[in-house]
Every structure is written in structure tokens, then in C-alpha cells.
Amino acid sequence: MQANLKESPCYKPGNQAEKEGQQFDQFLKLYVTRKLYDIPELDEKFEEKYDLSWKDCALQLREVSLQLESLENKKEILRNRLIQMSQEKDSKGFGVFVTKVQRKGTIDYSSIPELKGVDLEKYRKCSSEYWKISIE
Asked: CA-to-CA distance for 21 and 40, rounded, in angstroms?
């Protein structure tokens, strides 16, 4: 969503309205991206990095992530083709095995009447932490 300032009667290259329009476009892109991917607002929690080593690493990560996404799409297409070619039978060939696996369903604890009103929090395992990297 980009402001079309060139069609405005007030448009002059490099004028204040153009700069403000570009700033608004950047803000809008950042806002939409944050809402779309549920990225928290930038605040004191985040330390903004401007050094070249961070930039280099971040750009490489973005590129690799795009490549991985493309490869994952190709992998899914090939996987589905092999499943289709297996014709509902466990199959193998050229080091690739296609096996249909059935696992038990999960237990829906909220539907167990005996557990209504029981505090299940005391049975919760310890919390864990991990690093989440979001790419805009």
C-alpha cells in the first residue's frame, strides 16, 4: 500500500510531502507486518542493532529463509507425488520409504466431566525457554 504522490498536484521531487509519504509507507509496512506475524511492538525490550556484522548476518538469514521456504514447497510437492504413486501401499525405492503411520489421537481433557473444577496447573511440567527469530 503505497501513497501515490506523483499524481498529486502538489508533487515536486524531493519535497516534504514526498518524504512524509515515504515515511508513512515505511510505517504502514512495518505496522502491517507486525500485526500479520504477531511481532510485538518495538519498545525498551528490544535493543536495535545497526552494526555491519549484524546487518550481514541478518541479510544472510533472510536469504537462507527464503531459499528454505522455496525448498520446503518443492519438498511438499515431491512428497505428495510419492504418496500418490504409492497407491495406498507402503512403498520404497532409491533409498526413500513411504509408510502410512497411524497414531493415537490426543486426549481432550476439557471434555472429561471428572476433571471439571480440577486444577491441572499443579501437573504442568516446568516451563522452557527458546529464542524466536522473526523475519519481516
From this structure: 24
Domain coordinates in residue numbering, the chain: 1-46, 49-88
Pairing of strands 91-93, 96-98: antiparallel
Count of C-beta atoms within a 10 Å radius of residue 82: 13
The set of residues, in sequence order, having a beta carbon less than 8 Å from that of 90 and lying 6+ positions away, is 97, 98, 99, 100
**Model confidence at 43: pLDDT above 70:** no
Q: Compute the distance between CA of residue 20 and CA of residue 65 in angstroms, rounded to an integer.
A: 32
- pLDDT confidence of residue 1: 45
Do residues 5 and 17 touch, judged by C-beta distance below 8 A? yes
Q: Chain-wide mean pLDDT for the chain?
A: 80
23-48 burial, b at 16+ Cβ within 10 Å, e below that, comes to: eeeeeeeeeeeeeeeeeeeeeeeeee
Q: How far apart are CA 111 and CA 60, in angstroms?
A: 47
**76, β-bridge pairs:** none
Q: Extract the C-alpha cell encoding 89.
A: 501401499
Question: pLDDT tens digits for 88-131?
Answer: 999 999 999 999 999 999 999 889 999 888 888 888 899 999 88
